[in-house]
Each structure stands twice: as structure tokens, then as C-alpha cells.
Design a protein that fits this description.
The protein is of the alpha+beta class and 719 residues long. The radius of gyration is 27 Å and the shape is globular. The chain is 25% helix and 25% strand. Strand 26 and strand 27 (511-514) form a beta hairpin.
């Protein structure tokens, strides 16, 4: 026992009560009323550094009370505050403030200083008499790196300097200006990290010591006064991703259905996906999705690939850009520090190395290099996306240019990814990388049913399915483009499937199921987990095995009523608020749904019923989150009339969570394109629950396709 409360360690900040806006590579998180108080993760970030950490408004003689907050698209917030005690004759508010914060992607500006965010304030008076007050806005900047903020730390506010019409902050170690009052003259000085806040109209007072800018406000009845702040930041010169300057390669999709949740989910998600869209600085024509805000707004191999694959029904340009961007950075050498290997697809890229000491949870310092390859699944996922993009109509000449990276990726699976037992596996060799390198990458994600954490090297079940599908898809591409070796990869895939069947399948009281992994001793990790859902549709399971998996996914232990739990409630380590040990991940549920739909089309019993339950759960969760689905949320069971419980540190929006909306629609329609074979088939999800659904905007090759589901069949409305 202790005499007093234990010291609380520094922890990752929570996000669930913040509004997140994104216009990649800029994102913002704000509290009620649009406030930024300099604590936690609140602020506006550009290129993974916080350029605005404090923004608080005040009206002299009044108490500002927030009464409304809403998102305006993906990139702006709107807040309404009432000024209690100002101009009032009774209980009704007389003076209100509308506060809008709009993110800006100023990528095309090559002046060296880019606009990041605009804050607009409108003060309205409904008083019967003249109102006089003073508006003050207090601003602060700390230029904290996102990895520092994620670890629960802050470097502290930078000192402000007064400049013409506003304030500026200079990063630590930067050259100081000779004359802060006129420091605009040194705009082109090199190696400067400068943030400026410019007020309009010109403020009457600027107090650098407090960071406060002030204006007098004089309103007659019915008048409105307008003020704005524009925040500009110097370009770092080290950006590894850039914004799209308002251009998007994503197609549009409009859904009409008797179930209004579907259309609303898609509409909200597409706005967020465009907010997450980024470009490769070395090839600006190539777009991809940043994984999510705030922690992962950069290129992530696994996340960007899975999201692009789910979005193929909207066209192949995003997939092509993602494939090429990753191929340019495909591994060429063996380096244990970065986990690079020849042919391997990377995990993530950053502007600088990132430490995440609050993330590891196992007393290991997590320090990732700026280009990190610690992922076992991105390479087969890259192959799978290339194959599927080809089937959806990615131009043959573009596919052809990626055949060399394809062959390098196939060879990586065989020569570098495989362990002595013949499975794709991983182990961190650096001592400071990710302990787990599948999509469940937290330190405790792979557990035995009694709660013991499995030791690496680990071979994950779903990764073997990815490898099988990648080998088969790669073989199809080699055949189609006249390259040798296809039969070798089909044989390799068949042998992998046989080994998997012999080693991974185990049983518990409810019957057989595939283990989540094999540990370092080759022992099956016997927890029932959602990983098995990713095996469906890969081709590695037979009819009977698929039925067993479908039944597990639809069981009460796995299906929460809001989606698919990552770990069954029967497991010793289960917790509904564990990152990977009982929570529900949106994309994980969607991938299981896609696989179940494939199984249902093959006549697997129970697959359609499980898919229906998981889709309905996702839609119910989407409604509870106002259709902006988070990265993950609690695996607590759904209650009639209830809402899902947030996971407090979850990214929202997240690319693959938003892309799940399109995956749901494509599942219900069952579109199966084969553009090289000049064919399109439809295998709608059996059951007729969503009969009458109409989807406008599918793209198959160069053709737009609109469809309607009627009586278990699909009618093409136009193409």
C-alpha cells in the first residue's frame, strides 16, 4: 500500500471530446467552442508540427458560453458562443459570437510561407441598445512535433514577438530577426522556422508578453462586427508528403436507400477521405491517402493500401498513385535498424525519426526511423491491390510498369518473409521497433486465451491468407503480361495453404478455428480473434473451413452489435477498451464483411447472415458517431436505443474506417469486375434486406456504372 495516490505517468492524450478537422497535410483538433488551450493534443498542425497551440477569445464584461459546435465539411469547424451579461435586458442572449476555423492547403504557394489556417469571428448584436466591449484573442505556438505530443509531452510555448498586424514565433535554434517589428524583411532567410498570425482589421493592441491581440467593438442594434486571424508557417523543406491543392482523384458515389444510414455514411466518409488525400512530392500526379488524423497523417503502407483497395469501386487512380508511391520506396537492401529488405514495402514515412515512449506499453522505447519497413503484411497487400486494380481497369501500360516491383515483392515473400517453418513471420531486430508488425501492432495484441502475450517471431494467420492471395494474383499478372514464373507461384501458394491447414487449425469447446498466430516455438496462439475474418475471400480456405469461420464471426462472443470485436469475450485478456484486445475496428469489420460476402456467393452456409449482422452493426455505430467513423471504438455489447462507446485515443477520421462505407455498398451490390476479360458480374449479398438500394458513381475501367438492387438481383441503370 502507499500513503498517497500513485504518481500518474505521462500518457497519450485522449481525443474523443475534440473536434478534428483535416485538409492534409494540415489538421486541427479543438475543444468546445473552438478553444485551443495549449494542453493535450489540441491545436493546428502542419507537416506534423503544431503551429497553433493556443487560441482563446474573450469579450470584456461578458462570459462567453459555447452553445453549438459542428463540423463544416472535413476541414472547418463552426462554433456559436453567447456573451452572457452583455447587452441583455432579460433571460435571452443579446450578443453572440460565431467562430469558424478553416484549414488551408497552401501547397501551391512557393513563397516559403504558407497559410495554414484562418479563424473568422463574427460578433452579432440583437440588443436594443448600443453595445461597447473589447474583443481579445490570445494566441500561442510551441512547434511541437506530433510524436512528442502523442507521447503526452509538450516543449512549452515559444515566446511571441509583435509584428505589424499581429504576432510571430520563431522556433528554437532558428536565427533571430534583427528587428522584430519589421521582420518581414527577413522572410527569405534560410533555416528559419517561423509562424506568423496576421490580424484583420489591424488590431489596436498587440501584447507579445501574453500573446494577446485586441480590438474595440462598438455595435448598434442589429449590427455585425467581423474579425479574422490568418496563421502562416514557413515551409520546412523536409516534407515527405504534400497536399493536393484542392484536387482529388477520388470519384463520387451517391447512394439512395430506404436505410438512410448508408447514404449518410458514404457522404460523410467521402468528405473525410478527400481531406486525408495527399500527394507524392517526387511525383505530384500520384495521390494516396494519409492513414488518419492526428497521429498518422502520412503514407502508411498497410493503411494506404487497404483503403485504396476498398475504394476501387470509385476508380483506379487512387490505387495507381498508392502503388507507384510505395514502389518508388520499395526496399533495396537489408538494414535491421529500419527493417528494410529487398522487395519489401514500407510501413510508414515521416519527416523525422519518431519516438513513441507512451505507445509501447511494454517498457520498450519505441523509436522509429523516418522511413520504416517494420510491417509483415504491406508487401502482399501491395501485390493484392495491383491485381485488383488491374481487374477494375487500371490501364495496362500502367500495370506493366509495375511488374518489376511486383516480381521483387513476390521474391521478398519467398526469400525474406518466410521463416524456417514456411510461414510469413516477423521479429523486431532493432530493439526499438514495433514488437508486432501486423495490423494489430500494439505490444499485447497477440495473446493466448489465458492472457499470456505471445513471443516473436510470430506468424499471423491473416498474413498467410494475404500471401496466398498475393501469390495467386501475382501469377495471374505474370501470365497476362507474358512473364515467366506463374506456375511456380501457384505451387508456392498451394504448399503454403497445405502447411497452414496442418499447423494453424485448432479446436476449443465450440469446435475448430484458425489460431491467431504461431509463436516463436511454433505453438498455435489459441485466442479466437478477428484475424480469421481476413482469411475469407483469399482463396486459402475451403468450403467447410469458411463455414466454420463465418459461424465464429457471427457469434455473440465476436459480434458486439456494433461490429466485429478484435478478440472474443471468452479470452482471458478481453477488454472492450483494449486497443486490439476486444475493441471494434471499423476496417476490420468491413474486411470480414467483404470476405463473408465472397463466401456467401460461393454458397457457404451462415456467411450471408453473419455479413448482414456485421453490416447492420457498422451502420448502427456510424449513426452513433454522426457517420464519421473512428479508427476503433469499444467492444461493449450494443443496447437498444444506445450508442457505441468511443475509444478515447482513436483517430477520427481514419482512412480505412471511412473507406469502409464504400466497402459496405460494394458488398451489398456484389460488383465483380474483370475489365481485362471485358466482363462485369454482380453477386449481391443474399437476403434482400437492402432491396431497393441504388448506387450512382461506380467506375469500371473508363465507364461510370449506376446500379439498383431489386429482389436479390442487380439492374444496371446506365454505363
Amino acid at each position: 500500500m502507499t500513503d498517497g495516490p500513485a504518481e500518474i505517468p505521462v500518457q497519450q492524450p485522449y481525443l474523443h471530446d475534440l473536434a478534428t478537422t483535416v485538409k492534409a497535410p494540415v489538421f486541427g483538433l479543438s475543444a468546445t467552442g473552438g478553444a485551443l488551450n495549449g494542453r493535450g493534443v489540441a491545436g493546428v498542425f502542419a507537416d506534423d508540427r503544431r503551429v497553433l497551440s493556443v487560441s482563446e477569445i474573450a469579450l470584456a464584461g461578458a462570459q462567453l458560453v459555447p452553445i453549438a459546435d459542428e463540423l463544416d465539411g472535413a476541414d472547418a469547424t463552426r462554433s456559436v458562443l453567447v456573451a452572457r451579461g452583455l447587452g441583455e435586458d432579460g433571460a435571452d442572449p443579446a450578443v453572440s459570437v460565431e467562430r469558424r476555423r478553416v484549414l488551408v492547403d497552401d501547397t501551391g504557394n512557393d513563397s516559403g510561407s504558407q497559410t495554414v489556417v484562418r479563424e473568422i469571428l463574427e460578433i452579432r448584436s440583437a440588443s436594443r441598445r448600443r453595445v461597447q466591449t473589447t474583443l481579445s484573442i490570445t494566441l500561442g505556438c510551441d512547434l511541437a512535433e506530433i510524436s512528442t505530443v502523442k507521447s503526452g509531452h509538450s516543449p512549452g510555448a515559444l515566446p511571441a514577438e509583435a509584428i505589424r498586424h499581429g504576432l510571430q514565433w520563431i522556433g528554437h535554434g532558428s536565427e533571430n530577426s534583427e528587428n522584430s517589428e519589421n521582420s518581414d524583411h527577413s522572410e527569405n532567410s534560410k533555416n528559419r522556422d517561423i509562424v506568423r498570425a496576421i490580424a484583420e482589421p489591424a488590431p489596436t493592441a498587440v501584447d507579445a508578453a501574453t500573446g494577446r491581440i485586441s480590438w474595440p467593438v462598438d455595435l448598434e442594434p442589429g449590427e455585425v462586427a467581423r474579425f479574422s486571424i490568418e496563421v502562416r508557417a514557413t515551409a520546412t523543406g523536409t516534407s515527405v508528403v504534400t497536399g493536393t491543392a484542392g484536387e482529388s482523384v477520388l470519384g463520387d458515389l451517391r447512394v439512395d436507400s430506404g436505410d438512410i444510414r448508408i447514404g449518410r455514411f458514404v457522404e460523410r466518409s467521402l468528405a473525410d477521405l478527400r481531406g486525408l488525400e495527399l500527394r507524392d512530392p517526387s511525383a505530384p500526379e500520384d495521390h494516396f491517402l494519409g492513414a488518419g488524423a492526428p497521429w498518422f497523417l502520412t503514407l502508411f503502407g498497410r493503411d494506404s493500401l487497404i483503403a485504396a483497395r476498398m475504394l476501387l469501386p470509385l476508380g483506379t487512380r487512387l490505387a495507381a498513385g498508392t502503388l507507384r508511391t510505395l514502389a518508388r520506396r520499395q526496399g533495396t537492401k537489408t538494414d535491421p535498424e529500419t527493417a528494410e529488405q529487398p522487395g519489401k514495402i514500407l510501413h510508414e514515412i515521416r519527416r523525422a525519426p519518431a519516438g513513441h515512449d507512451a505507445f509501447g506499453g511494454d517498457e520498450r522505447l519505441l523509436l522509429l526511423p523516418s522511413t520504416y519497413y517494420g510491417t509483415v503484411d504491406a508487401t502482399p497487400l501491395w501485390i493484392m491491390l495491383l491485381h485488383d486494380a488491374w481487374r477494375w481497369g487500371m490501364p495496362a501500360d500502367e500495370v506493366g510498369k509495375l511488374l518489376d516491383p511486383l516480381e521483387a515483392a513476390l521474391v521478398w515473400m519467398r526469400d525474406h518473409g518466410m521463416d524456417d517453418a514456411g510461414f510469413l513471420s516477423y521479429v523486431d531486430e532493432s530493439g526499438h521497433g514495433l514488437a508486432n508488425q501486423g495490423w494489430k501492432d500494439s505490444h499485447d495484441s497477440i495473446q493466448f486465451v489465458d492472457g499470456r502475450i505471445a513471443s516473436a517471431p510470430l506468424a499471423l494467420s491473416e498474413v498467410q491468407g494475404y500471401a496466398y492471395e498475393a501469390a495467386m494474383g501475382g501469377a495471374a499478372l505474370l501470365d497476362a503480361f507474358g512473364r515467366p514464373g506463374a506456375q511456380e507461384w501457384r505451387t508456392w501458394a498451394a504448399q503454403l495453404a497445405a502447411r497452414f491447414r496442418a499447423r494453424f487449425w485448432i479446436s476449443d469447446a465450440d469446435g475448430p478455428f484458425p489460431a491467431v498466430a504461431l509463436d516463436r516455438d511454433g505453438k498455435p496462439v489459441d485466442t479466437v480473434a478477428s484475424n480469421m475474418g481476413h482469411l475469407l475471400g483469399t482463396g486459402m480456405l475451403n468450403h467447410e473451413e469458411s463455414a466454420l469461420v463465418a459461424a465464429r464471426l457471427g457469434s455473440a462472443a465476436m459480434a458486439s452489435g456494433y461490429g466485429l470485436r478484435t478478440m472474443a469475450t471468452s479470452a482471458g485478456g478481453y477488454s472492450p477498451l483494449s486497443y486490439h484486445g476486444g475493441s471494434v475496428w471499423t476496417h476490420d469489420t468491413a474486411m470480414a464483411v467483404l470476405g463473408l460476402a465472397r463466401a456467401a456467393s460461393d454458397g457457404v452456409p451462415g456467411a450471408a447472415e453473419s455479413a448482414h449482422a456485421l453490416i447492420d452493426g457498422l451502420l448502427e455505430a456510424a449513426a452513433g458517431f454522426e457517420y464519421r467513423m473512428p479508427e476503433l471504438y469499444a467492444g461493449s455489447p450494443a443496447r437498444p436505443g444506445g450508442r457505441p462507446t468511443p475509444y478515447p485515443a482513436s483517430c477520427r477520421p481514419q482512412a480505412w474506417a471511412a473507406a469502409a462505407s464504400v466497402a459496405v455498398v460494394s458488398t451489398l451490390v456484389g460488383i465483380r469486375p474483370d475489365v481485362p476479360g471485358d466482363a462485369v458480374a454482380f453477386q449481391p449479398l443474399p437476403g434482400g434486406v437492402w432491396d431497393g438500394l441504388t448506387a450512382h458513381g461506380f467506375r469500371v475501367g473508363a465507364q461510370a456504372v449506376d446500379v439498383r438492387v431489386e429482389s436479390g438481383d442487380v439492374r444496371v441503370l446506365g454505363s
